[in-house]
Amino acid sequence: MAATRREIFPVTPTLLSLVAAYAPQYTHVLLFLVSTFNLSPELLYNIFAAVRRYWKPIPKSTKLTLVFKEKDGLVSNQMFHAAEAFLGTKVNPNSRRLRITKSVKEDSINVKFAKSEAIVDSFEGMSLAWRYVIVEGKQKGPRVGGVKPEKKYIELVFEKEHKETVIKSYLPWILEKSKELEAQKKVVKLHNLQWPCTKKESVNLDHPSTFDTLALEPEMKKTITDDLDLFLRRRDFYKKVGKVWKRGYLLYGPPGTGKSSLIAAMANYLKFDIYDIQLNSVHSDSCLKKLMLDTSNRSMIVIEDIDCSMKSHDREGTSSSKKSNDVPTRSSNSFFSLSGLLNFIDGLWSSCGDQRIIIFTTNHKDKLDPALLRPGRMDVHIHMSYLTMGGFKILAANYLNIHDHHWRFTEIEELINGSQVTPAEVAEELMKSDDKEVVLEGLVNVLKRKKMEADKAKEGIDKGKEDKLIIS
User: Fold this and answer.
1) DSSP E strands: which ranges in 278-401?
2) How far is CA 470 from CA 7, 174, 339, 378, 467, in A?
3) In a 3-state reduction of DSSP, which class is residue 124?
């Protein structure tokens, strides 16, 4: 049997009671309805009872979400990279989606978490949910190099009541864990940076060069390693004297003298990633700054053949080809200036990073602008000269397993001192046979030929000088 009105509403509410019950939120609505439609208080009560039954307020969430974006403005977000490294150790059997990688030279398979995969962690009794997100961005203009722009960020969700503990204890703990992982890292990365590009192209640096295998004089190798060790432990010193914690090296000398091998040996020694900057693709100072800001701390920034990269531009970015008949070596769309490069190396922008090694290489030091060479920019100048006997003995030990004196060494030393031969040329000769005697005999013949060529060239120069004296 249907309930009567009296059973549902035992007491009919008055207009005053309705106003008091729903004031102040609904007072203006009640007065509007009463004045406009002349509705009775009982009907108004029924309307609002129905609204309240189906229009329930949404309960407030007890969760808090922290978002770690890959970049903070122009610079990399350290917290993002720390979280990314930390989460790489948290892959568990319950994961529904994993990312598998393996390079040709790696012995093992790398298992990593994939985008949008959720990982649950615990800390001091708290439950914390992580999620790694990659979103493809919108490309403005034509796509470059087939690379889609993308945005990365990491989310951390937890109860709001744990906010202080997470920010003051959990996140600093993750930073420390990421530093430990960085210290344990065995693989050095080689990053290719060129403009325009939306992300770094990276590979493992599998270069086997070390200071033990470099064909350099032992004194020079010790000088370099001592300088690197001193740089690493002087963080507080740099801060005290007001200098940015960085070091500049200029490697100069003829081709084939081991400049690239020295760079690889330094990276393997320090366990620093290498960022190879392609200046030929940079078309403005602002683009150069963005590339440089994409590098990380504890890294080596390398610009090879700096004389070729800067040949056609002066400090203002004006092409030198307009001032001479030289053929431009740069794209006509490149307008970055030497001043822009110097500003990042030693200007205000150089402070956007710590513990960095900046290396320039050149075959022709005399062609470089003196502004590049002064201390504070290129602090250490290393001349990579032609092969010496000390360097040859290292090559003989590496390639031929000869660690003691060999009867041919005396003749080889005389020939090396009397000619200009690079370590690369000698190394190529040492690889031509497994027989030591055959290899050394072939090397002696090559060195004799180079000495004869050098003597003939010297005679030609001397004769030219005599002719000039006769003419004058």
Assistant:
1) 299-303, 356-362, 380-383
2) 135, 79, 48, 45, 5
3) coil
Q: Kindly state the DSSP code that residue 148 receives in the 8-state scheme.
A: P
Rounded Cα distance between 227 and 1, Å, is 98
Output phi, psi for 145, to 5 deg: 65, 20
| Nearest alpha-carbon partner for 234 in 222, 225, 243 | 243
411-448 exposure pattern, b = at least 16 Cβ within 10 A, e = fewer? ebbebbeebebbbebbbebbeeeeebeebbeebeebbe
Q: Closest Cα to residue 364, out of 423, 311, 320? A: 311
Query: What's the predicted TM-score (pTM) here?
Result: 0.70
Q: What is the dihedral of CA 346, 347, 350, 352, to 10 degrees?
A: 170
**Inter-residue contact 103 to 203 (CB < 8 Å):** yes
Amino acid at 88: G
DSSP annotation string for 48-91: HHHHHHH-PPPPPP-EEEEEEESEETTEE-HHHHHHHHHHTT--
Please give the average pLDDT of every successive group of 10 residues along the chain, which has 472 residues: 49 53 55 62 69 65 90 82 83 70 69 72 91 72 53 90 94 91 78 66 86 93 96 92 92 93 95 87 78 85 84 49 40 62 77 86 90 87 93 94 92 90 93 94 92 77 51 39
Q: What pLDDT score does 452 carry?
A: 86
Tokens of 228: 């690197």
C-alpha span between 215 and 388 (Å, rounded): 8
User: What is the rounded end-to-end Cα distance, in angstroms, of the chain?
Assistant: 136
Contact 433, 439 (CB under 8 A): yes
Q: What domains can you pick out in the chain, each with its CATH number?
A: 5-54 (no CATH), 63-184 (no CATH), 203-383 (3.40.50.300), 389-471 (no CATH)
